[in-house]
Design goal:
lipopolysaccharide transport protein A fold; single chain; elongated; mainly beta; 1 helix
């Protein structure tokens, strides 16, 4: 049987066209999207020890001052854990508020600080009648708004007496403190 080049050429051409017809649609499709986004692990990307931070207003006045024994920042959610934080919230003409606890979490972007475990907040003034102390187990503070809130039990101590309740909304700027439920108190007689 003699070798026929034209038959082999037809076979090779058909094989090439069938391969091309299978491969060409694959090349024209968009690349498959990743079904799962890459998730970063919740690991510390930097840490600080015995740090001291002062945030300033556009006018160059201090807005708040934050100190802590340690800070651990996490890149995946831009949060930070603090150990032994102390937060000083400055108010224009009024005495500042000092807030401290055993630990805290700073929200993404630094917009809020959630203080936890033995939270103590104090408005210390020269006038004893204006002093106010607040005790709770957890307190969310938004320093730029001079605002704090909690759903936990709260105890307020002033020159007039002791007030207890569950839940608190505190506007440090307007000096308004609203207990939300189960309010009771012991007050001194004038």
């Amino acid at each position: 049987m003699p070798f026929r080049l034209d038959k082999w050429l037809v076979v090779v051409l058909v094989a090439a066209l069938s391969t091309l017809s299978w491969w060409l649609p694959l090349e024209q499709r968009p690349a498959p999207a990743l079904s799962h986004a890459i998730q970063l692990e919740h690991v510390v990307d930097y840490s600080l020890t015995d740090f001291d931070l002062t945030a300033m207003s556009a006018a160059g006045r201090p807005r708040y001052h934050l100190q802590a024994a340690s800070l651990r920042h996490y890149a995946d959610d831009d949060t930070a854990d603090l150990t032994a934080p102390r937060l000083k919230i400055f108010r224009k003409e009024l005495s500042p508020w000092w807030v401290q606890s055993k630990r805290a979490v700073v929200a993404s972007g630094g917009t809020a600080v959630v203080l936890q475990d033995d939270v103590q907040a104090r408005r210390l003034t020269e006038v004893p009648a204006d002093k106010l102390e607040l005790f709770t187990s957890v307190l969310k503070v938004i320093p730029d708004r001079q605002y704090a809130e909690t759903a936990a039990p709260v105890r307020l101590i002033s020159a007039q007496g002791v007030t207890r309740g569950v839940g608190l909304e505190a506007d440090f700027k307007a000096q308004q403190y609203r207990l939300l439920a189960q309010v009771s108190g012991d007050y001194a007689q004038p």
